[in-house]
Amino acid sequence: MPELPETETIARDLDQTVAGRRIDRVVVRRADVLRETSAPRFARRVAGTTIERCWRRAKLVVISLSSGERIVVQPRFTGALLIDDGNLPAAERRYSTVALMLDDGRALHYRDIRRLGTVTVMSPARFEQYTSSLGIEPLDRAFTAAHLSALLRGRRQSIKKTLMDQRVVAGIGNIYANEALWRAGIDPSRAAGSIANSEADALRRGIVGVLRESIAARGTSFRDYRDARGARGGFVERLAVYGRAGEPCPRCAARLIETHAIDGRTTVLCARCQK
User: Fold this and answer.
1) Domains assigned to the chain
2) Residue 94 burial (CB < 10 Å; 0-12/13-18/19+)?
3) What is the pTM assigned to this prediction?
4) Is the confidence at residue 229, as pLDDT, over 90?
């Protein structure tokens, strides 16, 4: 599933390449990805507007329109927003669910092989309501060690599950929770409330560091993630633990172990240096 670095990469690509373009026509091929609207209503609300800005909130890609409304895309497992200048491979175009036909002849496709992601159009008030329960953005200045420590205080859930709770911190999923906890030297199974202030500082640095480095590498691709140009992310080569079970720990050389016992998701850790 695209997490913060992947959706940030997509949003930046779109902002650089389609902001300022008018949407002349909308083609909905698979209406089951739409939420809170029908295909005809979605097309009526979007066609004729201009894309003013593309940005990210949590794991959402947001396209702000000149009408004041916003197209909100949650890619989930196999979703991608792809710019088609006529050279998009037919295999990618085949899975296009919604296409925005732009005034310069290009198209912006929402491609989703399994159709588990969602697309909708929202007013600013509806968007505010929709995102009001989301937690702090980990790349905001307000995300300090003290703030993180306060968020964790008293929580009995595992620290890994807490980091992935979008109501606590927005945008972190399984890959980067694994990586940040390894960087901080913290056992993912520990209760979040047991994290000391000094550990919260190390964890904050681990979170911010891995997210920024992954954004610089244009995200992590294992199978389906593609940026807006259809390219794969390069951070997979820099992952320290995720996907590396059985290999040596980059820090202490002990064998990395994998478990599903913490939150039902794949967790990879070093039992020697994560305490």
Assistant:
1) 4-131 (3.20.190.10), 145-269 (1.10.8.50)
2) exposed
3) 0.94
4) no
